[in-house]
Amino acid sequence: MESYIIVAIGNILLTSAYAFLTVPNDIIDGGITSTSLLLSSVLNLDITYITTTITVLLLIFGLITLGKHFFIKSIFSSLCYILFFNTFHLTGFFITINPFLCIIIASILIGLGHYLCLSQNTTTVGYDVIALYFHKKKKYNTAMTLHIIGTFILILGIAIFGIQAFLYGIIFITIETQVIYLLNKYNFLKRKNKRRPIWKNILSK
User: Is there a contact between 131 and 145 (Cβ–Cβ < 8 Å)?
Assistant: First the structure.
């Protein structure tokens, strides 16, 4: 139960930052929500439909390619993400502030949210599913695969939101990564379960 609560809190931090800060301010970071934001602008569809669709498709892809263990560990987190993001987005509430301040606050919240989820050996079913698949089948470096996917999304963002969106995305990813690194370095959350966290496996392969 403690683990589920931590994962739920992590998803609340993630989705509130996305729904209230990054999406309304057109800030992209190379993840699923950023992809949904870009597609929403092109297809003129509500971002909640796109986010939910991509998440469900990746969850099914993970079940087929990575097995039941991955599916079971990630489905709760995925459902939390879909529920919280859709709920927060549909409230219509958003915060418009200075872009740099927005990036700092959002990247810290999202970095903390990701850390809480990953510390419990689960994910929100993002592009790490694809990275893990390519590592399993082709022995590709998962960190590099994630970097390539994220960079590609940021480049697409240039065509839709301009070069400024790309630069903001780079800053965002840098801060978010450092937040996760520092939280782990100083053992922010001591886990009773001593198994190696998923995020370490992802970044080390």
Answer: yes
138: left (phi over 0), alpha (psi -120 to 50) or beta: alpha
Q: Dump the DSSP string for 10-35.
A: HHHHHHHHIIIIITTTT---SSHHHH
Q: Could you write out the DSSP letters of every residue in the chain?
A: -HHHHHHHHHHHHHHHHIIIIITTTT---SSHHHHHHHHHHHHT--HHHHHHHHHHHHHHHHHHHH-HHHHHHHHHHHHHHHHHHHHHHHTT------HHHHHHHHHHHHHHHHHHHHHTT-----THHHHHHHHHHH---HHHHHHHHHHHHHHHHHHHH-HHHHHHHHHHHHHHHHHHHHHHHTTSS--S--SPPHHHHHHH-
- What's the number of CA atoms in the CB half-sphere (13 Å) around residue 125? 27
pLDDT tens digit sequence for 131-160: 878 878 888 776 678 778 888 898 888 888
Give the pair of three-digit tokens for residue 133. Answer: 């698949």
pTM summary value = 0.79
Q: Which domain holds residue 140?
A: 2-204
Phi, psi at residue 30, to the nearest 5°?
90, 10
**How many structural domains is the chain composed of?**
1
Listing DSSP states for 76-107 in one string gives HHHHHHHHHHHHHHHTT------HHHHHHHHH
